[in-house]
Amino acid sequence: MNLSIERQANVYLLHVEGDLDASSSIILDNAMQEAIQRNEKAIIVNCEKLNYISSAGLGVFMSYLSDIEEKNIFFALCSMNEKVKNVFDILGLGDLIKYYPNQDLALQAAK
Amino acid sequence: MQYNISIKAEKKNLKKVRTFLENIFTQMQIPELERNQLILVVDEILANLIIHSAKNDIHKNIDVAFYEKEGEITFEIYDYNSPYFDITQHKEVNLQDLKKQKRKGGMGLTLVKNIMDEVEVYYKDNTNIWRLQKRLPFLLLKNKSK
After folding, report:
1. Does residue A97 lie within any of the structural domains?
2. Closest-CA residue to B115 (of B13, B46, B19, B36)
3. Could you report the per-residue pLDDT of B2-39, keeping only the tens digit for each?
4. What is the percentage of chain B residues whose pLDDT exceeds 70?
């Protein structure tokens, strides 16, 4: 899995690429931890190039939701492919994590 | 026909199993979404066994077997030299609790149970044998049309 960070206005954008599984989720974990510690106002995870996700990857997001809420950070995922979105939906994570079909919509919502 | 793969209990081997299954399911013409779900359930069980049962002991083997019969895919995953795992004690995860507890784990088995039609664990000769089954009616139609 590869991860890159981009800034757009006040938004911390994480681009996740490849396979996010029990072996690679630590990379995402470190990036999420850093973003939250930096007191970012908005964090968007762009999943356009994410090929695969298991519960280990989704668990990283779950574990930071309380901190995100406490710090009043806007947090969303965007641009998942059908396979990744399917896993997200099976667990019903849409009730807890905001999701947008593309990055522009996520950025608009973060304003 | 039965397919088999054996791995050492290392997280880096998860990708190896996913690629193995992807190739076979593609040959079987299983659609992408179902293919991903089937790969995911094996990945989830293996990750749990590597972390919680084998405790990342790279000397420990885990075997995976699967076959298709009459439109049903069956996986058998062998977790050797392990204490009995009572799957009946597993309860569906509560997402609000996970959020409050800031836990990263706990969703894998719920995913597996939501995807598969049957999830059972048998205990024999100090081995937990995970048997996961999923009916894919289109496979039955495909086989009949041959």
Report:
1. yes
2. B36
3. 999 999 999 999 999 999 999 999 999 999 999 999 99
4. 98
The per-residue pLDDT for B146 is: 64
Which of A83, A90, A93 minimises the CB distance to B115?
A90
| Burial of A38 (C-beta count, 10 Å sphere; 0-12/13-18/19+) | exposed
Q: Is A41 on the interface with B (CB under 8 A)?
A: no
A69: amino acid identity, one letter: E
* Residues B97-111 as b or e (16 or more Cβ within 10 Å = b): ebbeeeebbbbbbbb
Q: Would you give per-residue pLDDT tens digits along chain A (111 residues)?
A: 999 999 988 899 999 999 999 999 999 999 999 999 998 999 999 999 999 999 999 999 999 999 999 999 999 999 999 999 999 999 999 999 999 999 999 999 999
A63 and B115 within 8 Å at the Cβ level: the answer is no
Instruction: Please give the structure tokens belonging to residue B136.
Output: 């894919």
State how many domains chain A has: 1
CATH of the domain at B77: 3.30.565.10
Q: Assign residue A81 the CATH number of its domain.
A: 3.30.750.24
Please tell me if residue A70 touches chain B, with a CB cutoff of 8 Å.
no
**Whole-number Å distance between alpha carbons of A14 and B124:** 46
Mutate to test the interface with B, among A23, A55, A70 (most CBs of B within 10 A): A55
Tell me whether residues A91 and B95 touch, CB distance under 8 A.
yes
Q: Print the domain residue range for A58.
A: 2-104
Min Cα distance B99 → chain A (Å) is 6
Quote the number of domains for chain B. Answer: 1
